[in-house]
Amino acid sequence: MNNCGFKKYCIVIIFLLFLGICNSYAADYFNGRIKLSLNENTGRFSLYYLVDTVMNRYEPLFADQDLRTSSLTVMINDRTYKLGETTAFTVKAGGKRNNPSFIFESSLLTVTQEFSFISTGDDPQSNGVCMNIKLESRGGRINTVGIKFLIDTKLGEIANINSDHFATDKRGIRSETLLDYHEEDKWWISRNAQYGLMGSIITDYSTRPDSVHFANWKRLNDMPWELQFSRRNFNNPPYSINDSAVSYIFNPVRLSPGETKNFTILLAAEDRTGFARVASDSTRQNSQNAGSNPSPQSPERTASLSINYQPKENQETIRGDLEILNDLLARLNEYSSGAIAISDDEVLAMELVIDRIKNRYGFR
Asked: Which helix (H) or strand (E) holds 220?
């Protein structure tokens, strides 16, 4: 392989390795029919639904190929920060196995994004999560703080662009739609032929957003805060076609030093009753304990709360491999610009490094 061909090959492989390693750098939480994955490296989460109990097959409820496409943004004193990407906030995983969380910290604000498992309707198993976002003001001044949550939906992106991408309890949605505080829609659904993702709007168990905007993903993602409503479809040519998403906006509020504010959003697999009835995992377990008094070590309870952490030594290995890939990519960029040459011996060494990392994470 000549140097030019090797460079192209390396860029593709390194990019795929970055995505694969970042996705593997996660803790997985299983409860009922839900798998929740928290990625501490990116400060993002993914949500999966058990669609085949026999084959133990989980399918994503929203886009999970690139975790950055769904995001949580805070506005502090009219400045926006996309959590997990901005250097103004540190990120770490926290909480317990039943209530895992991300903790984002800056000099002005601590944001705790905590998850708990829920069931809707009469479902005896967890089929969704309650996401509570707690803002705690820091420092010695009053801050104005708001929240934007963008979720990159995909289940409604079927081949026919004239079909509904979403539905609420009051309408079908096949083009850009803005629901403001005066609308009475209670929930929305993004569905394919087999299952759907349901999100709260107005329920007894969540916080009513100031607006919910259904629009093209790129338009919503490129806008730091609110996107101006436009009567258009879910296309943004030439690169973003038939690509829809949902944006929640909670307008900024004033927080005194040490004061906290909570915002709650529910996400679950589609239920014909919506969020009319929601039970938390702890409430459901207490009810079961009162009726049957199961042993804390019963296989059913152990299985429903299983968790897969990355051990500390694995985390250090992942960090090291990401640094190596960063260095390789930097050298390839220098080679591409003509700043350096790469000898045949260096090509061989790079191939060996890439092969070793590929083997470590099971890439072929």
From this structure: helix 217-222
pLDDT digits (tens, 9 = 90+) for 119-174: 999 888 999 999 999 999 998 899 999 999 999 999 999 755 567 899 999 999 99
Q: Which two tokens stand for residue 359?
A: 């083997």
For residue 1, give the nearest of 18, 19, 13, 16 by alpha carbon: 13
Question: Of 127, 98, 118, nearest to 197 (Cα)?
Answer: 127
Tell me the two tokens of residue 267: 């996400």
Q: Is 302 helix (H, G, I), strand (E, B) or coil?
A: helix
Question: Cα-Cα-Cα-Cα dihedral of 72, 77, 79, 80, to 10°?
Answer: 0
Which residue type occupies 364? R
Pick from 104, 85, 80, 77: which is nearest to 226 by CA?
80
Tokens describing residue 62: 């929203």
Q: How far apart are CA 57 and CA 76, in angstroms?
A: 41
Give the helix ranges, DSSP H, for 152-251.
Answer: 217-222
Nearest to 137 by CA among 291, 256, 296, 21: 256
Distance of CA 340 to the CA centre of its chain: 39
Q: Please tell me the pTM assigned to this model.
A: 0.75
Give the span between the Cα atoms of 293 and 340, in whole angstroms. 70
Mark the ranges of the chain whose per-residue pLDDT is less than 70: 1-25, 159-162, 282-320, 358-364
Residue type, 307: I
Q: Dihedrals φ, ψ of 124, to 5°?
A: -80, -10
pLDDT in tens, 301-333: 333 444 454 444 455 566 667 777 777 777 777
Is 195 in contact with 59 (CB distance < 8 Å)?
yes
